[in-house]
Structure formats: C-alpha cells, structure tokens
C-alpha cells in the first residue's frame, strides 16, 4: 500500500505544470516564513528541492538574508544517515550529490551538531492531518529527527495533493509539528 501511494503521489506531483508548482511553492514558503516558530528560529535545516518537491530555493535565500543559519542535509547512503551542513552561499556552496540532489561541495562541508537546530523543514511524499509523513522509504529523516532536541520544531511543506487521510505510519515514523500547503497550515502536534 505504501509503495503504491508513493508512486501515485509522486506522479501527481510530476503532473503539475512547472508554473503551477512554482506558484504553489511560493505561497507555501510565504506561509512558512509567517510562522512565529520560523521567525524565532536561529538555525534552520531544510531540504533542497528535487523531483518537483515544494521548491526551497526562495526559503534558503530569504533565510540567509535574514541572517539565519541555514543547514542542508548531506546524505551518507551506506550509514543511512543525514549530516546537517551549514550553507554560506546558495547555490554556490552546492553540487549534485546523492541521488542528484544538491549537497555541499566537499570544500564547503561544514557539519553542525543536531543539538543546534531550531527548525527542520522536512520533505516527504504524503502527510496526514496528524503530522504523520510517508517518506521515500529509506528512513533517513525518521532516524535524523529522532536525534534532535525536544525543542526542535519540524515543519513539512507539501502541495495540497500530498495530504491524505492515511499515510500508513508506523511506530518508528517521526511526525511533524506543522504541515503547510498552498491551501492550509495544519498544526499537528
């Protein structure tokens, strides 16, 4: 069931026109930066969009302009882990990494302790209104989010088409505090 739901949602996301995806992404990012939790956060980790996910370029650039510390994940495939790395120059610090997703160049790798992260902007395939997420199946974010301080806040950004009644979550899955789409802000926990 999870595999089929992943396939359906990813295809629906890819079926959005680039213009529609860009417009929806901009609306979602505006809602995110209006959140008091975002405004209060000094250190933010965000994914770098790939494969028609909600676009994060604007968020990264805006956050840097607001003098926030911006971190992006470096994927260590063999250990199935994410390492947060600080970005000073976007997109100049980055190059295609694991799965073709932009990651810091080796000379720009600046690891940061997870204990310093105030907010994580989390990717995913599907979400429910309780903040449960269906990821891509590797468990990278579930393991990573489980290591963060209780004070860290997790925000999923997604297109409305990614909101489902059931995402078949399991006990080890880490829920998010908010899910933000172009149509709504869901306070989940």
UniProtKB/TrEMBL annotation:
Where along this sequence does the record place binding of substrate? 48, 53
Q: Where are the transmembrane segments?
A: none
Pfam families assigned to the protein according to its UniProt record, in alphabetical order: 5-FTHF_cyc-lig (PF01812)
Residues bound to ATP = 2-6, 133-141
Name any Gene Ontology BP term: folic acid-containing compound biosynthetic process
Q: Which Gene3D superfamilies match?
A: NagB/RpiA/CoA transferase-like
Group of enzyme by EC:
ligase
Q: Does the keyword Metal-binding apply?
A: yes
What this protein needs as a cofactor is:
Mg(2+)
Q: Recorded GO terms, molecular function? A: 5-formyltetrahydrofolate cyclo-ligase activity; ATP binding; metal ion binding
Q: Which UniProt keywords apply?
A: ATP-binding, Ligase, Magnesium, Metal-binding, Nucleotide-binding
E.C. number(s) listed in UniProt: 6.3.3.2
Q: Which reaction does it catalyse?
A: (6S)-5-formyl-5,6,7,8-tetrahydrofolate + ATP = (6R)-5,10-methenyltetrahydrofolate + ADP + phosphate
Task: Establish whether keyword Cytoplasm is in the entry.
Answer: no
Its family remark reads:
Belongs to the 5-formyltetrahydrofolate cyclo-ligase family.
Q: Supply the NCBIfam families for this chain.
A: MTHFS_bact (TIGR02727)
Q: What is this protein called?
A: 5-formyltetrahydrofolate cyclo-ligase
Organism, as annotated: Metallumcola ferriviriculae
